[in-house]
Every structure is written in C-alpha cells, then in structure tokens.
Amino acid sequence: MRLSFTFICLSVLLLSYGCTSNQAPDSTERPPNIIIMLADDQGWGDLSHSGNTDISTPNIDALASNGVSFDRFYVNPVCSPTRAEFLTGRYHTRGGVYSTSAGGERLDLDETTIAEVFQKAGYHTAAFGKWHNGMQGPYHPNARGFDEFYGFCSGHWGNYFSPMLEHNGVITKGEGFLVDDLTNRAMDFMEQHQADPFFVYLPYNTPHSPMQVPASFWEKFEGKFLENHSLDINKEDSLHMKAALAMCENIDWNVGRLMEKLDALDLTEETIVIYFSDNGPNGWRWNGGMKGRKGSTDEGGVRSPFFLQWKDNIKSDRNIPQIAAGIDLLPTLADLANIKVETNKPLDGMSLAPLLLEENPTWSDRMIFSHWRGNVSVRNQGYRLDKDNQLFDMVKDPGQSQDVSESNAAVFAELKTAKEKWMLEVMAELNLEDKRPFLIGDPEFEWTQIPARDGIAHGNIRRSNRWPNCSFFTNWTAAEDKITWEVEVMEEGDFEVIVYYTCPVGDVGSDFELSFLDQRVTGKIAEAHDPPLKGMEHDYVERQESYVKDFKPLSIGQIHLPKGPGELALKATSIPGKQVMDFRLMMLRRLGDKG
What we know:
Low-confidence stretches: 1-27
Number of helices: 10
Helix content: 10-25%
Distance between the termini: 43 Å
Radius of gyration: 24 Å
CATH class of the largest domain: Alpha Beta
Mean pLDDT: 94
Number of domains: 3
Structural class: alpha+beta
C-alpha cells in the first residue's frame, strides 16, 4: 500500500462546493488511479449482488466484497442527464442538458468536468465508450478534459459488432463486440500509463438496445426459465429480459478482464475502481420490487448499483446505508485524491469520503432530487415524495403503493417545500427554448462531425427512424428537398468536405451542393454504393431504433466558411434517377494549421 489514510482529506467543506482539499498533494506519494465504469440501462436488479438468481455477475459483485456498496445510490431517469451530473457534480438542469438527442444532450461549455479537474492535476485522462454530452468541439470529450477518446458521442448506436466509431475525432472501425473492444482500449491505456496516475472513464453501451451480445453469452439464456419478475409481469418481454441479462453478464466478464489487468500491472492497491449505471432498467424486469423503470423519477427509475473498491485503503465488504448520488462523485474522488476542485459554480454533490473512511462518521440527512421532462421527485433517507406529491415510506414500501403523507405530515411538508424551492431555483436554470446552434470549425479540432442526427429534413426527405441518434436521411427524391443545420462557425477557414452516402446503381449521377451563406461547394454521386441494411442479424429482440448500413465516404472538395452563425444546407441540383442518396454523415476537415 503506497497511500496512507492521513494523505486524504476527510472533512467536508462548508457551502455547496463539496469536499475539496486546500493541501497540495505530497510529491513523494503517488495519487490513486481512477477507473469509472458506467453501464447503460442496467437496473439495480440486474446483478447477482442484488439478489437476482437469474444472473451471475461475480466480477462486479467482487467490487462490493473487496470494497463498499452503497445501498441507496441515485442517478437520473435517462442517459445524458446522469452523465452530465457525474461529470460536473451538479444537477443536469444547471448544465443545459434537457434531452437525449439532436443537441439537447450537450453540456454547457461553462461547466467544469471531472476530467478537467484530474487532467489539471497531472492525470492522463481517457474515455472509452458512449459520451452522450455533445459531439462537435468544444462539446467533444477531447475538449472536456479527456486526452484520449474512443467510442461514439450519440445517445445510442445501431450496431455493436465492429461498428463505425471515432478515435479522437477521426472516423474509424471498431474491432469485435463493442464492450469487449472498449475494455481492450482501456486496458491498453492503463498499461501505457502505468507509471503515472491515470483517470479512465468507461461508459459502456449495454444493455441499451439494440439487444446484441456475442452468442456465447446468449446461449445460457436462450432457453432459460426466469424465476425473477417485475411488479407487473404482464408488461414483461421475455426475450428482452434474457438479452439484457446476457448483456450484463458480458459486462461482468469484461470487468473481470479489467481487474485481472490491474493485478497484472500491480496497480490494484493504487487504483480506485467504481461501477454504477445511468438509470433504471430499460424494460420491465425484476428490480427488487421497486416502482418505475428507465424514464421514471420513481425509485426503480433512479436507483443504481454503486460499488467502490480501493483495496487496502478502504475497509472492504461494507454496505453503506446513507443515500448518495452521481453528483457526489466529483467531490468524492477529488477528496480521495487530495485534489482541489477549482470552479466558479457551486457543486450540488458532497464528498462521500467520511462514509468511506471513518468508522462512525458524522453525517446529516440530505435530499436528492430527480428530474426528467418536468417531473420531479425528492428523496431523503427514509421517504420519497413523487412527481404527484405523494409520499412513500421507502423502507417499508419500495413499490410505492401506499401514500403516507397524512400520517407523516411534517415529512411531507418538508419535502414538498424543498421540491418547490428546487423547481423554482435549480430547475429554472434549464432553458427548454434552446437556441444554441451547432458549433462547427473549432480551431482546436481538425475534424468536425455533422451527422444526420443533428439535421433538419425538408421536402420528401425522411429519417430512417424516429429516434435520431444513429439514423440516416433517405427518400431524397426532389430538387426542392434539402437538409439543413443551424450552425455557428467558430473560426473562419477552408475545409475539406466528406459526405458519407449510399446510392444504388440506377440512381448514380446526382449533383448536389453544400452551402453556407454565400459559399458553396458542389459534388456528384459518380459511383454506386448500395449495401444492405444490417443489425437485424445480431438482434435477439426486434429493435425500435434504426437499422444501419456501411456508408461510403466521398470527398467533394473544399469550402471556405466565414466565422459566425448561419444555415448549412445540403441540396441537389440535378437528379437523373429516382433519388439523390441516403445520407448519414458529413465530415469537415480544417485545412492548413489548426489552432
């Protein structure tokens, strides 16, 4: 063990900035490495640690036995808000995150992220997986404190087997099943930086749909009789449940590989490892008898498993009963690493270090708020006031079946007043009339992605699916059809334009142009590229999202973009066939020196 307990700040800073230390780290001590794994749509009940006998997750469970578990840990009802709260230590409503797609997932640029905090402290920082808090620089993870990024920035992805991804802004192709690939990348990064402190964020993409998993994991569940069920068995989809559990077992296998890598590098005692999920389960399945699932502000929609291991530094095999939340991770980890959080914005989270390190910590009751789409609930240690202002005893009634507001009038009044104040002060910071354009041409970035996801279709053009994240535009059949983006060019420059398209043989020959203000560049579909839709061959459950295709890049030349706001438009000038193309993505590459 290289770190002593006296090295760590144990006090909680007054005010709302969370716990930070004003003491500089001892240069003779190595700060702890940090690894944070975040599952996507894994419910509290999707672990054998929670008592689910249909699944076996020994490697994730071991994080609890070798570390601590928080019995009541809360996140948000959906993906991007939880990520924003983890990144900033602040409620997502403060940071401009109001949606999960088409720009509403972007985290305001004046927010300080946990990666920036650790990067400034000298850590090597990396994120591998699903970002979901902004795509174009300066919203991109490489601009938010991460030296290295490999994965995708959208809210969900359409194919988990060797898909199109990006590496530090450059389009690339994944290698094998995505969760396995992300873990491999994380392990390589750990090995590369084993001599120095590193901060690794692993936001996995499963068990979010599409329900894809290697066959070796599916085989166990295909004919399995499931013993555990949700509160409403009539709403369950057996195939979806089985696929989700198989995906969780694949995550567990990867957690085991990562922990074995830490052991091989002799870094286990020097590394804080955290595992949690971003919201409740993405389907009706067993969740400990709690009410709610993904999207709900009830207990089952926002309670997440949470395990923290710091071997030989934190007493192991403990279950911590005090309520905690994703907003607490930034102040907690900064506290444990003895790093000062420098931000001009108050943190909503608080350091959990006393609960982790002290035998009998002084700890006051608190309130944690959950919000999604105007619905707000508030939780204290024993009760939840739901979106309809019904009060529930969460110790006796996790299914929230009996309103106890009349018999607990004082608690009801306290939580209702706090909720009203939060809605007036904190929720009011959320601007639902979002006027932010998509920023392009960040001078710090060579590449800018402009996906169909962020575009607006005009005329006959339609999306391949109503969920925008990994969709493409199709049915581009008329000259008056166009695709537009409301953008702002951050710095004037010349850019190469690359369009990702498909087009059948019979429709080759369309001419089109990209315009911004008075600047234009023209292109021509001179080569057929007509791959089939794919994804269904790997799906174990029929998906709701778009199927995908392998789109072909086509460089159409250069365009000069002046600085400032305007409409970026893609439209056809001639259509000899039935359609122009199916459009997935446009990449802009800044020419000349960047920066």
